[in-house]
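Q: Joint fold for the lines below.
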Amino acid sequence: MILLLSGEGKTDIGECGNQSRYCDVESFVPGPMAIFIDQLVEKKLQFSCLENGYVRFINEHALAAIGKGLAKKRRPSMPSKKKRKETLYFELNARALAVKAKLLMAELKDEVIAVLFRDADGTASTTRGLYETKRDSMLRGFAIEEYVKGVPMVPKPKSEAWILCAAKENPYNHCDQLEGMSGNDNSSNPLKQQLDNALGEHVGAIGLANMARDGDFDVHRIDMPSMNWFKDCLDAVLS
Amino acid sequence: MINEVYIDNFKSLVGFRMKLDKFNCLIGLNGAGKSTVLQSLDFLAQLAQGDVQDWLDARHWDKSELNSKLSKKQNISFEIISNQRGAGELKWFGEFNRQNLYCSSETITLNGAILLKVSKGHFTINGEVSQPIVFSYQGSILSVLKEKELPSELIALKTELSSMKSMDLLSPHLLRQKARASERDLGLGGEKLSAFLHELSDEKREKLEQYLKSYYPSFRKYQTSSLRSGWKKLSVHETFGGQPVETEARHLNDGMLRIMAIVAQTLTEHSFLLFDEIEDGINPELIEQLMDQLVDAPQQILVTTHSPMILNYLEDEVARAGVQLVYKNQQGLTRSRAFYEIPSMAKKLEVMGPGEVFVDTELMKLVDELIEEGEGAEL
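A: Joint structure:
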């Protein structure tokens, strides 16, 4: 089984160390979210995809290029009663990842589980649109491409909230409150700053990934609605 | 090409600045000020031509309605930057006196050097001895100075400004009217179309008919005929199943009349064409062709739209450079921002078409975000 991962940057899923847009585990530099995914998979299957080389990574620009190609084949997708605004970005990225996953399955003749990470309150949509509709529009994107092994990973409002749950004073308690905070980095008390304060210094992507790997952040104990939804979805796909 | 415009105290435009590209498209909520931007450009073009009172009359406006209700200023300040191929950057700025309908002060520079200056009742050309202004005029002094007295760059600027054409009131009702003479141009609302088409040269008529055939396969030709009283009647000849059908303009569909007017304008000598709500009455099947024609037109173009179809048929680079979101800030002042340069829109554009980005975005909330960030007020 191969894990195909895609995110927004090095501080969430990670990046290719060799500047390329697509890489295997050899050149993949995992971010903290990739470590979390691997730890959840390992708990379920007693097998680390990262350690055994069963990971592929595609960056958001490469994914967007696939999505843009899909866009040329269709008429503009209109919002409607059934399809709300601020969801198409998530749907198209999911479709693009599904396309890539199916190609990879054919190439490797192996099962591919794809995880698509996007902050609920990130650059692409900020506070516009609802968390649930963004997450569900990823599921719609996977379904449009008839791909059943896609998992949306959408922290609310952003990945720093999940990490802060583990890093804050009185960790792992009342973390659902963090989901009500703003994901805007220019807000009065930004989550990024709160995370730096909790850690006592600014820790970069690799540092955060190492802390996740070393157990300083325990993904299994992070109890937040957006994380729990992701865990359930991943679990269902792995079952 | 006009690259930048600034206007202060014109209707809802207070301290309003906007960059312009070859093709420009304004989007935004109702009441944001899109049409006002068109009107302001038409107003500035009129200053270069004089006859400001005629311009007000044509719009049924009074001079007291020109200024902003949100500013205590009396004069209207303006600045236009135009890059002239081979010559450099021309900048025209000044103050329009609303009571007397003329520019009480104005300056035109070329690459920073003053070419023309009007101040305190005197004018100077090319730094020569200042002369008293002993004549009356409306708009800019450019409208009355003899061209042989002006350096070529000033003539170029005057020509560029004077040949801007705003069709912000284009209406099928007016397009259908018979007309006597067009003076080789359409009216603000498209009136005089029949006379205008009648007066087109054979070459332009042929070109226009070719374009219309590509839009409407049944189209054969248009015909204008002079009635005894001098009125010009317009009719269109089409063929359906081998059967010729002639339709007089007053029975023609809105879309064909609008396409005729818009396409005909691209065949004129105008330097800059402005159309409000370009998609009105036009079948979605024709929009791609119309947009391609406008993007490739010899003129600088500015349109407004509420249609994602219009935007979706723009290439990403054209959309990035030319689509401006027009919105009102907390004080009710109109502001603009390059829509696809807003980080969240740029990110969406990476994966979807320009129209899809527009239609997938909650514009009201986006505007709230821009206001909150205090962005867009200044470029």
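Q: Anything notable?
A: The first strand of chain B starts at residue 2 and ends at 8. Residues 329 and 360 of chain B are 22 Å apart (CA to CA).
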